[in-house]
Amino acid sequence: MIGITRPLVGTGVLLKATLRHELKRFIPWIAIVTMLSTSSILAYAWMFPHREDRAVLDATIGGNPALGLIFGPARNLYTNEGFNTWRAFALGGFLTGIAAIFAVTKATRGQEDSGQAELLASGAMGRGARLAVAVLLGIIGSTLVGVVTALCTLLCGAEADATLLLAATFTATGWMMSAVAAVAAQLGSTARAANTLAVSTLSVLFILRGFLLSLEAPAWTNWANPLGWLDETRPATDNHWWPLLYALVFTLIVTAVAFGLSSGRDFGQGIIPSQPGPAHGSLSGVEGLIWRLNKAPAFTWVIAFVALGVIFGYFIGSVKDLLASSPAMAAMMAGGAVDPVQLVNNFAVTMLSMLGIIAAIPGVQVVLRIVSEENSQRIEPILTGGISRLRYFAVILAAAAATSTACLLFAGVLVAWLSSRADIGLSFLDIFIQSAVTSVATWPIIGIAAVVVGVRPRFAIAAWVGVLESFSITIFGPTFKAPDWTMAFSPFHHIPHVMEPDSHVWGVLGLLVVSALLCVIGCRAFNRRDIGVG
């Protein structure tokens, strides 16, 4: 009777307990977003002290449309607030959204999968209390991201108006994604499926916003995207606060939809049911088991990379128009200061490197599946059945490398086809070979994840260091004029440019050696440590 008349009873008590135990999970995300913003303010005056330096920066960013796909348009690079907005706006919002999604999903479907929700439901608690607490957790955590980022950035000397508005867009993104995750938690049959749905939604919105803004699509396309609403705030230029109201309305409406869906689904089940297994068993060995566990997410990632291949291929095919739209770069090309052919080749390599960084994500996820299987106590029965630890671990690493490679090759075929059809001097074979050698750079990143899981699985979040480091160095390194020894820490820096006549394979061979070494270290550590203790 309590669950019918008072669906939110017990929310306050549960919220206090949840904040005490789960809010700390936002700390790494708060640190990353804060560092992203504060480093922009601190580095700007040091790296670009004179107006001439800032003009070169404007031309450099205008000459690399790939950056616009991630960071959006650079509207004002002549002030530190404008530079911070360009560098932190899109990426800071994306990271805050990811943090909110993980928090909400764990507090909803994660608790149902682990059995915690059943214990909570046995007490005096309304049916909607857990969902309300999960959404509030995401909202509070996202608000903390914005508040801490704003305070630290202001202490670094930034102006208040642009900084507060920029931080507010981070918070607004987290709020909206908390609501999206709440809906995904009702749709997905497991926490893993719910996470995939929510993160996929955020990723699609993120890529579409950057893609359409870079192509200077009609204004209505920005308003058709919830993340595009936040772009209309224009921190450091126009400083519009009113678009944040749209984010608030979106959060309220989508959260209401989540509550409506929650009241109509069975406990522990998703509205989208999981597919039943085959009537007759067909698994033969650990290879078949690993294939079965990772088949669905692998196919999902392949479909995503097919879409990315179309977007990136079209983007590369339009590179000349994109470069011409930058006044500074157009002047440099007209004056002969830069080689258009070299610019096109470098742009294609940069885009494929970005695809490679994204392709490393599913590979790391496959490796981290070991941790979830271990925590669920499903590994020990396998290892007691005659399967050696080394074989089990090696098969998973092979599956991880194959997943990342397949994703990049599927995208590479489409990028090569679309690029070769455009009149920009790129051939299908060159782009496809470039995508193939780029896939090798994902293997050391998978090797880092293998070392983390093999040595200390309790620090599984460290498995993402390779992805984060590669992204930071590959994307930010050239902008901040990083020295070669710094760029060398990114595996994508060692990939040869096959379109250049003097390219060689030594970088690829070095990556293979490093990958093998990391995988051997991970295998030996996994073979020696206790299962379930890390």
From TrEMBL:
Any stretches that span the bilayer, and where are they?
26-47, 86-104, 131-156, 162-185, 197-220, 240-261, 298-317, 347-371, 392-419, 431-452, 459-480, 505-526
What's in the keyword line of the UniProt record? Answer: Membrane, Transmembrane, Transmembrane helix
Which domain of life does the UniProt lineage start with? Answer: Bacteria
Protein name in the entry: ABC transporter membrane-spanning protein
Source species: Corynebacterium ulcerans
Q: What is the lineage of its organism?
A: Bacteria, Bacillati, Actinomycetota, Actinomycetes, Mycobacteriales
